[in-house]
Amino acid sequence: MIKYVILIYFLIISLISVIVTVHDKNAAKKSKWRVKESTLLLLGFIGGAAFMFMTMLIIRHKTKKAKFMVPLPLFAAIHIVALVLAFMYL
């Protein structure tokens, strides 16, 4: 049961991360209010990194910033390992 709660958490935080990333890209195009970089990184850190990273590559958002292109794949790898371990041992 706990495995599925963890999986649902990652899916929800990933969806939120994608939505916020796309919103920030659209806001950048329109010179509107932007999402703080620290907020984007926090969303990646708490579980949204994999889908946020893929979204950034697809929509070409912040791809030239090492501040995002280095930690997000690292966070994603850690999350994937954590999910695999959770499904193996819980």
Describe the overall structure.
With 90 residues, the chain is an all-alpha fold. It has one domain (2-89). Helices cover 82% and strands 0% of the residues. It has four helices and no strands. The protein has helices spanning 2-29, 37-59, 66-69, 71-89. Helix 2 (37-59) packs across helix 4. The protein is elongated. The model has no long low-confidence stretch (mean pLDDT 96).
List its traits.
mainly alpha; elongated; 0% strand; 90 residues; single chain
Gyration radius over CA: 14 Å
Which overall shape is indicated by the principal axes computed on the Cα atoms? elongated
| Overall average residue pLDDT | 96
Strand content of the residues, in percent?
under 5%
Low-confidence stretches: none
Q: In percent, how helical is the residue content?
A: over 70%
Distance between the termini: 9 Å
From the helix content, strand content and strand pairing, which structural class follows? mainly alpha
Order of helices and strands: HHHH
Q: Would you report the number of β strands?
A: 0
Sheet with the most strands, sense and barrel status: none
Tally of individual helices? 4
- Write down the domain tally: 1
Explain the layout of strands and helices.
Layout: H1 2-29, H2 37-59, H3 66-69, H4 71-89
Helix pairs in contact: 1-2, 2-4
Compose a concise summary of this entry.
It is built from four helices and no strands. The protein is mostly helical and 90 residues long.
